[in-house]
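Many introductory courses stop at the sequence. We go one step further.
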Amino acid sequence: MAPKGMLILYGNLSGQAQNTVFPFGPSMMKGFSMRAYVVFEIIHDPARFERARRFVEDGPARGILKPTIAKTFPFEQIVESHRYLEANEQVGKIVVTVP
């Protein structure tokens, strides 16, 4: 973390967010801030939600969002795509194409 940076904690799909180990001493010395993010901040505010929706929907076409694709599988290889996902070795998204 850079001095005076901001650490944003996001996600709790595992239900283990409360077990995060936080290095308080080194963090304090860098003077950075920490903030939790929850999607409800956006979806309960109609104006923010609309801006976010437009950004996500239009981002790829405008070149603002460039997702990293780890691997693409045809639908016929759906079992292999799940095995690849479960191996947890990918960097980026796994795409399954549907005819």
